[in-house]
Every structure is written in C-alpha cells, then in structure tokens.
Amino acid sequence: MHEGLNLLKPYSYWETQSGGEVSYRFSTTTSVEYSCYFLDASGYFENYPAIARNVVTFGFRVVQPTPFFRPQYDIRIRDTIFDILYKSTLLHPERSIFIMFDTRDRRPRHRKVVFGKWFKEFCAISNLRITRLSLTIPSDDDYSNVHICLFVPSSSPDLISIKHAFIDIRDELISKGYPPSTDYQCKE
Predict the structure, then answer these.
(1) pLDDT above 50 for 127
(2) Superkingdom, according to UniProt (predicted)?
(3) Degrees, nearest 5: CA angle 126-169-23
(4) Hey, where are the domains in the chain?
(5) N or C, which end of the chain is more exposed by having fewer CB within 10 Å?
(6) What band does 35 get if pLDDT is binned at 50, 70 and 90?
C-alpha cells in the first residue's frame, strides 16, 4: 500500500501482463479472485485527439464466478482498487481513465452512484487532484441509459483540451437527438 493513502487494509495484489496490457489480481479472505485492468481506450475517441492521446479504460471483475457466486460487501476490495488507481495515477500523471457503466444487467444507475461515491472517497483520502467529467446519455427506456465518466488528473497538460473535447461530445449527442446530462467535479 502506498503511504499517500489512509486505507484500512487493502489486499495484497500482483501485477500481470498479457499482450502489452497490465492487470492486477488479488484474492479476498473468502478466496474470490478479482482482476483489475487498464486497456487502451483511444478507439472510443478517434475524432477527439486531445482525449485519445493518453486514455485507458479501467475495469475490475471476478476472475472465475460460479453460478452460486453472490458478491458480498467487502471494504477491502474498494481499498485495493483505490490503491491500484493511486499507484497508476502516480506512475502516469498525464493519463485519463475512461469508464462506461455496463448496462447488460440493468444496473447502470447503481454503478453510477457507486462510482460517484468512490470518486469522492478517493479524492478525500488521496492527495491527488482529479477532474471527473460525466455524461448520462438517455435512451428510450429507464434501464439502458449509458453513463460514462472520464477521470483526468488535474496535472494533465491536456486537461483544458480534454474539457473542450468533452463539451464537443456532449454537443454532438445533442445534435443527434440524445441530449445527455453532464456533471463536472474537480478536487482542488
């Protein structure tokens, strides 16, 4: 764990590499193994070079869920993810992290709330300044709205250009009849 975070007790994790992509794995006290990973996300932003220049997606998942697996609340999972994100941001202070909330299980709003809460908690316990840019793109039903977030270290030399590109994305969605709601948060 990095000394910069005041976390309860993250799990020990190890780094793995496959095809040039880095992931981190850890196992909980109940022997559930998780994988956290960063993948190149530049393809999502081909028309927006300021964002595409240095952006990754971040995700985490249970490595081998069984039909009987039921996720349990474990604050150490959150703390482990925070530690991984903190280390990654220190190593790559210019890199943005893109997250799109999964809608397949009809729980994107829940993920939006959790990630919003985690963002506030992460900012409160770290000394990092992060700007969060969010869009909620409406759909015809209440269950398949798409929620996307872009987390940009405030130290990024591209921060202003990224904010302008995000506004352009919003305006493009509006012109296509998908008026998104937007949210900007910055820990100063």
Answers:
(1) yes
(2) Bacteria
(3) 45
(4) 13-186
(5) C
(6) very high
